[in-house]
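Summary of Year 1 activities. Much of the first year was spent building the evaluation harness for sequence design. The harness presents a backbone, in tokenized form, and records the residue chosen at every position. We chose the following record to illustrate the format because it has been used consistently in internal testing since the harness was completed.
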């Protein structure tokens, strides 16, 4: 008995994988593929496809603010609904630091952290270590140590910086860094209180950039002081 073997007769799961791979390459290619046939359009409605979508940060930023891009906003809303971690992370950063709703931003950020997103973990760790109470600082420090051990700090800074940079400066909510309330609380520590001077030397003396791995902190032997140094780097990501 003859059985049709054309692309339209492939199983739905196979079509979903094909459309998902296309979405991971380009949203424009995804739109073109979905318009090619009913089977592709139906597969393109799966949450898996929206989670795979590769959305450049500039497109997401433009779709979010332009009144001419309602289809783009609808697409972003669908990506959020599906659990697209990168879209959720960018949205949370915008809410927390770029003029949105802080409560909603914190809720979203914790959802992304729960899925193991390193840049979200980095962001929450920095926010915790900026607080005044020792319990929050210790929780943030534990996350910081895990990211440092995994060699993930540089990439986390780049991802975070990619969301913040390119926005209007007057929209940015600068985190407060209290020089008197440091992560390192040991008065016997020889490097305590010197992180600002080390930062200025590394950045202005050696022309450090965020791409330069640890930013010059590798020689600091004490993890609490490295955390204080990282907080300075975090605040200056908003410059």
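For this record, the design step produced the sequence shown next.
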């Amino acid at each position: 008995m003859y059985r049709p073997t054309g692309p339209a007769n492939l199983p739905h799961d196979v079509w979903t994988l094909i459309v998902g791979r296309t979405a991971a390459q380009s949203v424009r290619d995804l739109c073109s593929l979905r318009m090619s046939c009913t089977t592709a359009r139906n597969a393109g409605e799966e949450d898996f496809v929206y989670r795979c979508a590769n959305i450049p940060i500039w497109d997401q930023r433009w779709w979010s603010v332009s009144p001419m891009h309602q289809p783009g906003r609808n697409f972003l809303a669908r990506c959020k609904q599906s659990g697209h971690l990168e879209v959720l992370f960018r949205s949370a950063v915008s809410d927390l630091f770029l003029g949105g709703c802080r409560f909603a931003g914190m809720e979203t950020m914790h959802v992304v952290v729960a899925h193991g997103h390193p840049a979200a973990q980095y962001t929450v760790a920095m926010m915790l270590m900026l607080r005044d109470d020792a319990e929050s600082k210790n929780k943030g420090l534990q996350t910081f140590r895990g990211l440092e051990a995994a060699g993930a700090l540089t990439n986390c800074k780049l991802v975070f910086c990619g969301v913040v940079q390119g926005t209007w400066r007057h929209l940015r909510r600068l985190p407060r860094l209290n020089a008197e309330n440091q992560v390192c609380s040991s008065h016997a520590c020889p490097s305590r209180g010197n992180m600002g001077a080390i930062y200025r030397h590394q950045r202005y003396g050696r022309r450090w950039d965020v791409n330069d791995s640890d930013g010059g902190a590798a020689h600091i032997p004490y993890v609490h002081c490295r955390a204080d140094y990282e907080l300075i780097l975090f605040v200056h990501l908003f410059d």
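The longest helix spans residues 134-149. Quantitative recovery figures across the full test set are reported in Table 2.
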